[in-house]
Amino acid sequence: MCVVALALADGEGRWLMHRRPPGKHHAGLWEFPGGKVDAGETPREALIREIREELGLALAVEGLSPAGFAEETRAEARAPIVIMLYTSVWNGSSLAALEGGEIGWFTAQEVARLDKPPLDVALAADLFEKT
Ligand SMILES: Nc1nc2c([nH]c(=O)n2[C@@H]2O[C@H](COP(=O)(O)OP(=O)(O)OP(=O)(O)O)[C@@H](O)[C@H]2O)c(=O)[nH]1
Q1: Using a 6 Å cutoff on CB, does residue 78 contact ligand 1?
Q2: Is 112 in a helix, a strand, or coil?
Q3: Domain 2-130 has CATH 3.90.79.10
Q4: Coil vs helix vs strand at 97
C-alpha cells in the first residue's frame, strides 16, 4: 500500500505533526499528515487531496520536494506500507485537524522524542539528517 506524507516546515525550524485520533491504526501516535494514494492518482495529487481534507490547507504542487521514503517488511495481517515523504514550506494560511486528533509544531529534537509509528521514526531520522 502506498501512503504519502508531508513534512511541513514553518520556516523557523518547526515541523507540523498530526496525532492520530482514537480508534484508528496507530491511534495516539504522532505522524506526518497524509494518507493513502488512491487508484489513478499520482503521489503528489494524493498528498494535495489528503492535506486539503485533513488540514484545510491548499498545497502548491511546485512547492513539494521529495524527501525520502520508508518501507515496512512483510507483516502477516495486511499488505506492507510504503510511505513517500515530501517537504513543503507553510504559506501561513490557517490549519486545523479537520478529521480529528490534534496538530502541533515541533522542532527536530521534539519530533525525535514524540511517540511515532515505526516508519515515521525512520522518516524523521532521514529528514533531520538532511535538513
Ligand atoms: N498519513 C500517514 N499515515 C501513516 C504514517 N506512518 C504510518 O505508518 N502511517 C500508516 O499508513 C496508513 C495509511 O494512512 P491513513 O490512515 O492516514 O490513510 P487514509 O486517511 O487514506 O485512510 P482511511 O481513509 O482508512 O482513514 C495507516 O495505517 C497509518 O497508520 C504517516 O506518517 N502518515
Answers
A1: no
A2: helix
A3: yes
A4: coil
* Extents of the domains making up the chain: 2-130
SS (H, E, C) 72-90: CCCCCCCCCCEEEEEEEEC
What value, to the nearest 5°, has the Cα angle with vertex 109 and ends 124 and 44? 30
Q: 116 pairs with which residues across the strands?
A: none
> In terms of Cα–Cα distance, which of 71, 68, 66 is closest to 81?
71
If 0-12 CB within 10 Å is exposed, 13-18 middle and 19+ buried, where does residue 78 land? exposed
Residue 117: predicted pLDDT: 95
pTM recorded for the entire structure: 0.93
Q: Complex ipTM, two decimals? A: 0.89
Tell me, in angstroms, the distance from the centre of ligand 1 to residue 3's CA.
7
Span from the CA of 34 to the centroid of ligand 1 (angstroms): 7
Segment 104-116 mean pLDDT: 97
**Phi/psi at 109 (5° precision):** -65, -40
